[in-house]
Structures are given as structure tokens and as C-alpha cells.
Amino acid sequence: MRVVDLASRPDLCDAALDLGDVGGQFIYQGASGKMITAERFLRLWGRYFLIALDDDGVPIARALSVPLAFPAEGRAELPDHGWDEAIQWAAQDVMDGRAPTALCALEVVISPRLRGTGLSAPMLKALKARAAEDGLRKLIVSVRPIGKENEPDTPMPDYAARRRPDGLLADRWLRTHERLGARVIKVCPFAVTLTGSFADWHAWTGVELVDGENHIPGGIAPVNASKELDYGSYIEANVWMEHPMDD
């Protein structure tokens, strides 16, 4: 496996994006999600859009991340709004001309034919190596636990605290990070917040909402909806983790 970045290989953008997703793509319909377009990555953060290639030069995985200043003035702690606010911090730093000191991973996507083969760990290692190469002191991740989709009603603090008999975290995506040395910092209760009309939610997920709580494909929390107000609100918690940097 060879890893390149979008800055050096912009021709691979479409193929990398065509690898699909790991569920929950509706989160990109929110205000923060709409900020991280392919065009903006090409223009601003091309070095932090990593693409893994097989021996034939075909993309088999991608890892997206954004550089940001943390800790910094007004940013003493990782935000409770997790993924959403990390993207906003990165955009603010570009507008303010503030130099980044950390890298925040946003997603890791593996080709469907290779999922379950252990490629996620090398992609996280590649992000960590890129952070170190660019003098960034932290790799942080607002981790979206994969298995939580099966338990959307379970509170995240309870879910994230589960461990296997061997002592490792029970959720496999949290466990992948832990095996690479990452430590849990805290649960971020409002990591992704998204609202829309009933029509919006149908377009995003294919689900016809009903009054009350709704479970949606890829959701790790329910959508709370009101037919009278034509309004559906989704708030998901994530888990902040920090990877140690090599000396």
C-alpha cells in the first residue's frame, strides 16, 4: 500500500470519494459538514486528504483531516460539539491566519471490498505521520463508534465505557484507536447537530419520519421529530480521543 495526498494527486479526488462511506453520510448535510467540500480540501487542506493506493495505483482507502490550533486562546479544552466545532475551528484558523498546532481526523473510509482487512489502522498511522511531518503536536479524533448504530438509544457514556474481558474497549472503532495508543479524553455530547424538515430527512436518509423518536440508517442516535412543526432534530455524541505523537 502506498499513501499519497490530494495536494500531489488531485486527479484521484473523484476515485477516492467514490469509495463510498461507512454510514451516517447525512451528517454532511449540516452546516459544518457542508464546509468540507472537495474543492475546499483541494484549495486549503490537500495535504490532509490522504489516499491509499494498491499496487496498480487504484485508490483503496481515504482519510480526511483538518489542521487547527489546539490548545489555543479560547480553546483550553476539546469542544463538547466535537466534529462540528473542530471543522469550524479549522475554518476560523484559515480566516484568521492562525497557525495550526494539531490535526483532527474527520473520517477514514476503506474500499468496500477491503473492509475488515485492517486497513484503518495504517490510515490512522499515515495521518499521525503527516501531523508529525508538518510539526503538528497532536492527532485528535472525534470518534464516531461504529457499533453504536445498533444501539441508538444507549447513552454514549455507557456505550463508550464498555470493555471486553481482555480490557480493551468493546466498540471495534474505538478499539482500533486504543490499540494504536490513543486515549479517551471525554465524550462530546453534541458532536454532530443536524436539523431539517420531514422532506429533508427523507431526501437524506430515505426515511419517512413520524412523531417522536425515529431510528435512521447510519444514525447512532434517534431523530426527534414533530409532524406539526415539520421538524426533525438529530444530536449525536462522539468520543474525543488523542493519539500520542512520537518524539
Description:
- This protein has 247 residues and is an alpha+beta fold.
- It has a single domain, classed as 3-Layer(aba) Sandwich (Aminopeptidase), CATH 3.40.630.
- It is built from seven helices and nine strands; from the N terminus they run βααββαβαβααβαβββ.
- Strands 1, 2, 3, 4, 5, 6, 7, 8 and 9 form a nine-stranded mixed β-sheet that branches.
- It is globular and about 50 Å long.
- The model has no long low-confidence stretch (mean pLDDT 96).
- Tally of individual domains: 1
CATH fold category name = Aminopeptidase
Number of helices: 7
CATH class: Alpha Beta
Tell me the total number of β-strands.
9
CATH architecture assignment: 3-Layer(aba) Sandwich
Q: H/E series, N to C?
A: EHHEEHEHEHHEHEEE
Anisotropy-based shape: globular
Strand content: 25-35%
Largest sheet: 9 strands, mixed
Helix residue percentage: 25-40%
Mean pLDDT across residues: 96
CATH superfamily: Gcn5-related N-acetyltransferase (GNAT)
Defining traits:
247 residues, 28% strand, nine-stranded mixed β-sheet, alpha+beta, Aminopeptidase
Write the layout of secondary structure elements.
Elements lengths: L1 E4 L7 H5 L20 H7 L4 E5 L5 E10 L13 H15 L5 E9 L9 H14 L4 E6 L12 H5 L11 H8 L3 E14 L1 H8 L6 E3 L8 E4 L4 E13 L4
Parallel strand pairs: 4-5
Antiparallel strand pairs: 1-2, 2-3, 3-4, 5-9, 6-9, 7-8, 8-9
Organism: Amycolatopsis xylanica
InterPro entries: Acyl_CoA_acyltransferase
Protein name: Long-chain-fatty-acid--CoA ligase
